[in-house]
Amino acid sequence: xxxxxxxxxxxxxxxxxxxxxxxxxxxxxxxxxxxxxxxxxxxxxxxxxxxxxxxxxxxxxxxxxxxxxxxxxxxxxxxxxxxxxxxxxxxxxxxxxxxxxxxxxxxxxxxxxxxxxxxxxxxxxxxxxxxxxxxxxxxxxxxxxxxxxxxxxxxxxxxxxxxxxxxxxxxxxxxxxxxxxxxxxxxxxxxxxxxxxxxxxxxxxxxxxxxxxxxxxxxxxxxxxxxxxxxxxxxxxxxxxxxxxxxxxxxxxxxxxxxxxxxxxxxxxxxxxxxxxxxxxxxxxxxxxxxxxxxxxxxxxxxxxxxxxxxxxxxxxxxxxxxxxxxxx
Amino acid sequence: xxxxxxxxxxxxxxxxxxxxxxxxxxxxxxxxxxxxxxxxxxxxxxxxxxxxxxxxxxxxxxxxxxxxxxxxxxxxxxxxxxxxxxxxxxxxxxxxxxxx
Lengths: 329, 100
Fold this sequence. Notes:
The structure holds 2 protein chains of 2 kinds. Helix content of chain A is 2%, strand content 43%. Chain A has one helix at 4-8, and strands spanning 13-15, 27-30, 35-42, 46-50, 61-65, 68-72, 75-76, 81-82, 86-89, 94-97, 108-112, 115-123, 128-136, 141-144, 155-160, 163-167, 181-184, 189-192, 203-206, 211-214, 227-230, 235-238, 249-252, 257-260, 270-273, 278-281, 292-295, 299-303, 313-317, 320-326. The longest helix of chain A has 5 residues, at 4-8. Chain A is elongated, with a radius of gyration of 22 Å. Helices cover 39% and strands 16% of the residues of chain B. The longest helix of chain B has 20 residues, at 59-78. Chain B has helices spanning 20-25, 43-51, 59-78, 82-85, and strands at 5-9, 29-31, 35-39, 55-57. Chain B is an alpha+beta fold. In chain B, strand 2 and strand 3 (35-39) form a beta hairpin. Chains A and B meet through strand 4 and strand 30 of A and helix 1 and helix 3 of B.
């Protein structure tokens, strides 16, 4: 039979306070509290706060990973000021990078820190919808051919400035909610098969070959919980989210995704997709909508949002290190 | 009636304000006006408030701060044009009622 001494190389130690950096699986006796404790990795993820952006931004777009993320465009208070600013998060702090050529709100985006794409948006005053496409090369934004149908608030999946899928969106006139899907190959947009449910301000995750669309606003009658999966040819309906919402953020892939924040009801809700169903997991610490997201189900980033518009940033990590008390009760 | 939550005002300084350990132990809820809700009669909640040098508020005091922020947002919304207000997605900021 394996023993603690045999597997850990030492007996259980006594301490007056918990050790500063215990190892996973380590057991110790806290003499002050008179309890036996141990540390382990919990599979459950949680959000923690991170450094806020330079301004209280919202309605911008995000790209990248938890420790190397971009946030660009959007609004900031007071009075919904428009910005074309780009900020970079390195896992610790935000630094400002080169601005978008076209400042806009409700911009959509995807990719990574060194290779991202910003598409569509809304340019007030005048209620101007833009299909402007800008490509980020880690230094600056360059203008590219516009979306086939100009619109704002698309869902996005993709990994670089040469591989992005834009779906849904809002034309802000007539029948606003769109089902259009367009694929960007680095040079041109090509129209693909429509979403089954036309909508905008939804969450998106995945790649141009395997994407996920969830939630959003569909005017039918308004907010939706619907989930659809893209297989490079068509969209297939999947199980709904537990809480319908719009202006939410997403991260991950078609087999492991996160949906967090958004409008309607409690706006701190986080749900995790396992490829089949959504399960509610730990809430954002500060509920908000109009936020951006990036990353994976093990390491995601929630950027900006409102209210309050404070540029709040939160980091999701799973698993997490937990110190527990061994009880005989 | 025993309260379920306690409230404090603390400015979110970013990384480390709420860390993963704290988030795994208790549920936080942030509200406008830097108002934070944590469980009452809870060691981890009390330790967190001490860590962030939070100013403890009664529920009524916290409610007043949040309400003032919401009313300011509602006034901003009310000042918009009818066209802006008629956008079904541009909903008027809702009142927030803190729980006991």
